[in-house]
Amino acid sequence: MDPCAFVRLTVANLALKVPLASKPSRSAVHPSSSPCFCTIKLCNFPQQTADVPYIPSENQFPDNHPHSIAATFHLSKADINKLAARSIFSTKLCLKIAVYTGRSGATCGVGSGRLLGRVTLPMDLTGTDSRACVFHNGWISVGKEDNKGSSAQFHLNVKAEPDLRFVFQFDGEPECSPQVFQIRGNIRQPVFTCKFSFRNTGDRNQRSRPLQSETSSSRSWLSSFGSERERSGKERKGWSITVHDLSGSPVAAASMLTPFVASPGTDRVSRSNPGSWLILRPGDGTWKPWGRLEAWRERGSSNGLGYRLELIPEMSPSTAIVVAESTLSTKRGGKFVIDLGGNGSNWKNTAVSATSPGCSGDFGYGLWPFCMYRGFVMSARVEGEGKCSKPCVEVSVQHVNCTEDAAAYVALAAAVDLSMDACRQFCERLRKELSNPHDLVG
């Protein structure tokens, strides 16, 4: 499999210090006594927000400080070419950062932070898909000078580095048992086929079977990870999707582990009682659990699809580690992302969960026994409810050593996409491909 060229642009090691002459007063907000944050914007990419730690003015930024990433932008070769063409006819590509004192967020629709100053950093991304480039590493003046000619100093590290990825595209919706193509430029090459099916959920023994061909030892995985209590009322259960290579051999699977059940008195799958999937990989003649995906419907005006992904150590299944937790818009869809090093919720939740022996807490590098999972791992683009969704999956080359590796991420992407339907309001009818003939409701 040939990878596609991508570039990972990171903004890291943020810090702020102000001149000694700047003293707190009743009429001003000072970084030395207040929280600081910044907004980071690159062209048409979504704006990102990050906290900015304060450093006393007499101190220097420590050389041994952990490389703390504040924002990450992922650019394909097509993105870079488009930005390069745009810069010919307009202003040069710039990274724009606005630094604020005060807490991030808004009150009554009005931003709560006070603008301290702006930083504009010109960049040329040409060639960064094949070599790393540091655009800035150090201090830069920001804001107005005081009466002694000094201004606040803002520290940042901005660099771009190659990030090769495999790109896979479903040729149809997962429930329609589509082919999966590998994409490289204008070349589309079939690499997998998917088979969507229902497990017969009429009895407990059948409910614990992700695949008809699995052995008795592997059937215990579903019962050991899933809930054993009986479900009543509205539920969706028994969905399963198997990924095969071109020879027809099964190389990964996603099987509904816990039924998606409506909370009492509602038509919604709640966060307190989520449905879940078990992502499986073949090994030693049987299926072995690789990850567990939980999904639910968020409350409130956002009404999004909440999700949480845990990776399951083969030698210690009880010490699963959360590597992704966020929300997708049920209306617009979005990207499911595993990124152990970004500023998003993925990294924050991973840091909290990394409590195993030998954990360094640095970027997820110490996520024993998942030390091989670093930086960007994978992303999957899915559409919102009622829209035709053909998930596009990107997987970092460093996390694919065999066909089964790639297939596991494809199965995970299918489970995320199917969760969008599994978490639909139970008052809404699902398409016929998702209507389980063994269920009376769903």
From TrEMBL:
<dbReference type="Pfam" id="PF06219">
    <property type="entry name" value="DUF1005"/>
</dbReference>
<protein>
    <recommendedName>
        <fullName>Formin-like protein 18</fullName>
    </recommendedName>
</protein>
<feature type="compositionally biased region" description="Low complexity">
    <location>
        <begin position="213"/>
        <end position="226"/>
    </location>
</feature>
<dbReference type="InterPro" id="IPR010410">
    <property type="entry name" value="DUF1005"/>
</dbReference>
<feature type="compositionally biased region" description="Basic and acidic residues">
    <location>
        <begin position="227"/>
        <end position="236"/>
    </location>
</feature>
<feature type="region of interest" description="Disordered">
    <location>
        <begin position="202"/>
        <end position="236"/>
    </location>
</feature>
